[in-house]
Amino acid sequence: MPTPPSKPTTAHPLEPPPWTDEFGTELDRLRAEIVAGRGARDARYIHRVIAVQRGLEAGGRIALSVSLLPPAWLAGTAMLTTAKVLENMELGHNILHGQWDWMGDPAVHSTTWEWDFLTPADAWKHTHNHLHHTYTNVVGRDRDLGYTILRMSPEQPWRPVYLLQPLYAALLAPVFEWGIALYDLEADAVTAGRKSVRSLFGEIGRLFRKGVRQAAKDYVLFPLLAGPSALPCLLGNLTANVLRNVWAHTVIFCGHFPGDVRTFSEADIEGETRGQWYLRQIQGSADFEGGFLLHVLSGNLGHQIEHHVFPDLPSSRYAELAPRVRSLCAEYGVPYATGPLWRQYASMWGRVVRYAVPG
């Protein structure tokens, strides 16, 4: 049995285990197996999800157009919320990762998809696909480690404002898409000299134009089309967006910030091999457990570990990959953080509170 790696929860440079390359080869084999098996089943899945999502959105819009009737408001808001969750989590996030690019279908391609989320797709792909997935939980390199406003590791310097982070982390949830949009502008890169002011203003312009389109659609166009039901329709759209934001915040925070998730130093990734990258992705992420519907509504990010190990494989394959990755981790003694959603949620808030104070 290989000697397990040590399991610190903070950034600390470690000597990689001697079996790291062997472990990486095993995961490469899993990946190659899924790549070779992609085909009609995967195409049917993604097109079925798109059809369901569009049907729910159409049904929700129609019901909200007569939402002076309370049952119609409840049904319309529920359908529209579910449609927005599916579009954001299982469709937008995963399509923009290139998980279905292999199909060659422009309708579900990472270069053509623009999602129903405030931040423009190109900006999100840069900060998320490139920076976050490359430097997962590396203090000083992964901006998603606290999104530049939260302290999630003791190696992040403490400032008095962090005493309030439990409050503003909670306030972020209902406006999560706005927070992510502002974060994706990377204004801190301007002060650090990595981005020009001109580039920043160009990105602000693109964000503003998309924000106007999003707001006009949900808070002007469809309410006006609803006529006498304009106000309840507007409130239904607002409720759907808020609930979608709260759910996305919950899923993403539970996949990245529970207490068992490790952070790393820049020294840890010097000369990093493929096997070491796999180890960092696994120990820098967390799964949560649930049934099929929960996983679809979370964009299969209840399998966050599998997503970080194989970010460009179809999300519908993560459920079959998860027990195999977990078994491989058990064989090599690699920590694999998982548990019920409620427990990961509580653990995440424990981390937010713990690192709000010095030390």
TrEMBL record:
Transmembrane segments: none
Pfam families: FA_desaturase (PF00487)
Position of the signal peptide: none
Stored CDD domains: Delta6-FADS-like
Region entry Disordered, spans: 1-20
Domain of life where this protein originates: Bacteria
Domain (Fatty acid desaturase): residue spans on this chain: 72-338
InterPro entries registered for this protein in UniProt: FA_desaturase_dom, Fatty_acid_desaturase
Stated name of the protein: Acyl-CoA desaturase
